[in-house]
Design goal:
This protein has 629 residues and is of the alpha/beta class. It folds into three domains: 11-237, Spore Coat Polysaccharide Biosynthesis Protein SpsA, Chain A (Alpha-Beta Complex), CATH 3.90.550.10; 254-417, Glycogen Phosphorylase B (Rossmann fold, 3-Layer(aba) Sandwich), CATH 3.40.50.2000; 435-602, 3-Layer(aba) Sandwich (Rossmann fold). It contains 24 helices and 23 strands. Strands 3, 4, 5, 6, 7, 8, 9, 10 and 11 form a nine-stranded mixed beta sheet that branches. A seven-stranded parallel beta sheet has the order 14-13-12-15-16-17-18, sandwiched between helices. Helix 11 (301-305) links the parallel strand 13 and strand 14 (312-316). The longest helix has 17 residues, at 372-388. The chain is elongated and about 105 Å long. Residues 1-28 have low confidence and may be disordered.
Length: 629
């Protein structure tokens, strides 16, 4: 408790017994805040400080103090005689004090408005500090999310706002060095339950060539406030100030994103398409500094060229821990965590960790695994990973529903829906005709229905074969092209053969095809048959529409919203229902064109730039909160 004591006239005695100057209150009403600086040496850096203050906060009064007030005339401020910052600050109360502990070169517009709102909005806040940096632009305030103030052990940096409310309880600054006096004020406030915070939205640029903001004398502080030791020794990476600084660096200079692409293969499957499109879209953003993609050492040159770009760096990673590929703000695996990930290694390279769950099909379907034991291990890996990473991204709201149904350990504030883009294919995409299909065309099968995707059982390719047979039975002369690799476990090959795929005339089976051949197939097919019954997002209808081809689908999961806009959908998965929908589109070109237009309209907002924007929001929101440990 500070009280009037028996010290020398004009002093008060603090609770530690030290004599400090008597606090002389400015009559009220007065200014809301007053800026104060103390100069007993070179005036040049302070001239730049005053210029920055006048430019950024012209309405804030300025008091300049020093041993020789006449020497301060060039500052064009209220000049007072003082031998320390305390001597300049103490007479200013009851206004809030904006104390300059060191010269600064630049301030953002209206720099102190957030800090003053903090101290007036919560009278427990004794001091507000500011972030240092080399850019006082508006990015910290313009780019979301807006962070709450973060606590600090005591006021620090080149500038600090000292609350008039705290002065009323704590008393004046002690006569000491500027940093010592302000830190001591903070810690005396903390003893009474007051708080010291940092404004995460304001960055103040120190004057070039001038000494850095002074640091308080550690031994002196510990002698007066022994309790502060643990705060001084805390792990900096875990402190609120460290979190705020990480977010500020990412906003000011751009995010550094490390993408785990170690699972990418040589074929342009859907997972590769979306990963590459995501990386390219992130790299196009001016708030992203760089994207580093960890790739298999044997990835073909053609696939590597997809990632060329001034801000994209492709690096080989064979250890799986992404060692040496950082530092990064975020490491993101935009694919299933199918095997245990070295999250400890990830955290050595990046501040936050993110995985994408594309779907939970393999989690739910045991036949997609070589044994029951492998299935159990897969499920355990998924559960452990999503419970340990900082953020989980799902590519549709429906995948989020499945995560909740499976009771996976993902709290709602760690789960983010980020839809995929659908604009990676354009009308002028390069194409090349597959030889097997052109040969069939020469033999008389010129029209065909296309089924695109691996032969997982949930893709229902066998039902597509039966639907095709029904279409032909009804008199339509169309072939069927089945494109996609065969999987080791859970394949529909046997069911397709039983449906007649091996014997039927006009049925062509192709493995994975290059992108140009896929484009040709999508463009020249009369119809895409997409009878999937489990999907994470469903890119195929959008890709087909981009190249002018309609799709028949059953409204299920993430396809329900798209189906609601389409003129034609299949009522169910029966061959007759699929054939009914296909027949309607095959007989009526006008209806087929309407199906394409409706699909394109549904995907108009689903762009990769929108995906990247949402991901950046996710990354920043995770950086602004504590890491999961």
């Amino acid at each position: 408790m500070t009280k009037v004591g028996a010290g020398a006239p004009g002093t008060v005695t603090g609770s530690e017994g030290a004599a400090v100057p008597r606090l002389r209150a400015v009559p009220t009403p007065g200014p809301r805040a007053v800026a104060v600086l103390f100069c007993d040496g070179d005036l040049e850096p302070w001239l730049a400080t005053v210029a920055a203050l006048r430019r950024a906060a012209p309405d804030v009064p300025l008091v300049a103090a020093g041993p020789d007030p006449d020497a301060l005339a060039p500052l064009e401020a209220v000049a007072v005689t003082a031998t320390s910052l305390a001597g300049a600050v103490n007479p200013v109360w009851p206004a809030h004090v904006i104390a300059f502990l060191a010269p600064v070169a630049d301030l953002p517009a209206d720099p102190f408005a957030p800090a003053l709102a903090i101290v007036d909005g919560d009278r427990r806040v004794a001091t507000v500090s500011f972030l240092g940096g080399d850019d006082a632009g508006d990015r910290l305030r313009r780019l979301g999310p807006r962070e709450d103030p973060a606590t600090v052990p005591f006021a620090q940096g080149a500038v600090a706002v000292l609350s008039r409310h705290a002065f009323s309880a704590i008393g004046p600054l002690v006569e000491a060095g500027a940093a010592d006096a302000v830190a001591d004020f903070s810690l005396r406030a903390r003893r009474r339950g007051f708080l010291d915070v940092v404004d995460p939205s304001t960055q103040i640029v120190s004057a070039p060539g001038s000494p850095p903001a002074p640091e308080p004398d550690r031994a002196w502080l510990l002698a007066r406030h022994p309790f502060v030791g643990p705060l001084l020794d805390a792990d900096d990476d875990e402190s609120p100030l460290a979190v705020v600084r990480t977010v500020a660096r990412a906003k000011a200079r751009g995010l550094r994103i490390l993408v785990d692409g170690s699972w990418l293969g040589s074929w342009e499957m859907g997972t590769q398409v979306q990963a590459v499109a995501m990386v390219q879209a992130l790299a196009r953003r001016d708030d992203v500094e760089r994207v580093t993609m960890a790739l298999p050492a044997v990835l073909p040159a053609a696939a590597r060229r997809l990632l060329d770009g001034p801000k994209v760096e492709a690096r080989a990673d064979t250890g799986g821990n992404l060692g040496g590929l950082g530092p990064a703000d975020v490491v993101h695996r935009p694919f299933q965590p199918d095997w245990p990930l070295d999250l400890g290694g990830w955290r050595k390279e990046a501040h936050r960790t993110v995985v994408t769950i594309l779907d939970l099909i393999a989690y739910a379907v045991g036949s997609y695994h070589p044994s029951g034991e492998h299935w159990v291990a897969h499920r355990r890996t998924i559960r452990q990973t999503v419970g340990a990473v900082d953020g989980v991204v799902v590519i549709s709201a429906d995948v989020g529903v499945q995560i909740r149904r499976e009771r996976l350990p993902v709290e709602p504030d760690r789960l983010f829906v980020v839809g995929l883009g659908t604009d990676h294919l354009q009308w002028d995409a390069p194409e090349s005709a597959p030889a097997a299909v052109t040969a069939a065309g020469e033999a008389g099968v010129r029209r065909f229905v296309l089924v695109l995707g691996a032969d997982y059982a949930h893709k229902n390719r066998d039902l597509a074969v039966r639907a095709h047979a029904e279409i032909v039975r009804r008199g339509l002369d169309v072939g069927l092209v089945l494109v996609g690799p065969s999987v080791l476990h859970g394949s529909s090959q046997v069911a397709e053969a039983a449906a007649g795929a091996g014997d039927a005339v006009g049925v062509i089976r192709l493995p994975s095809v290059p992108a140009a051949e896929r484009n040709w197939l999508l463009r020249h097919a009369d119809l895409v048959l997409y009878p999937t019954s489990a999907e994470g997002f469903g890119l195929v209808p959008y890709e087909a529409a981009r190249l002018g081809t309609p799709t028949v689908l059953v409204p299920v999961g993430p396809l329900v919203d798209l189906a609601a806009t389409l003129p034609v959908t299949a009522a169910d998965w029966s061959p007759s229902a699929l054939a009914d929908a296909a027949e309607a589109l095959l007989w009526d070109p006008t209806l087929a064109a309407a199906q394409v237009r409706a699909t394109l309209a549904a995907g108009r907002q689903l762009t990769w730039d929108a995906t990247a924007a949402r991901l950046v929001d996710v990354y920043r929101s995770l950086l602004a909160r504590p890491a999961v440990r």
